[in-house]
Write the structure tokens for this entry.
Amino acid sequence: MSNVRQISVFVDNKPNQLTGVMKLIKDSGINIRALSLADTKDFGILRIIVNDTDKTCEILRSAGYAVTVTEVVAITIPDSPGQLSRVLDILGGEGVNLEYLYAFLGKSDRAVSFVIRVDDNTNAAAALNKGGIIQLTENDISEM
């Protein structure tokens, strides 16, 4: 199984809060490979995949941010109609519940990559392998 560690950072939903996180990451020479931002009225959840998870967590925690690390599945599929639907059919067919997903840029303009948060990474990985879906490792993403 090739889980990828995703960092979630909780930020107040106020001006310049995201800027502070991004500046810390930039000043540390960390490269963000994938990103998603979800918000509520009071706070936001920044989800990122970076080239150095441990260093990023250390820097953000030292600055007082609430940070969690979650194992997610990352895949790459052909950039053509119906491919994401195929992935969702594979996961659903094995009873894997999708919690959220977001896309990110990969190495090729002929493929698209996704971070997928599911209720069971082991079942998801087995289903995706059986369906011929390419799973990415942290190292794969770091080298993109």
Summary: Residues 17-27 form the longest helix (11 residues). The chain has a mean pLDDT of 93.
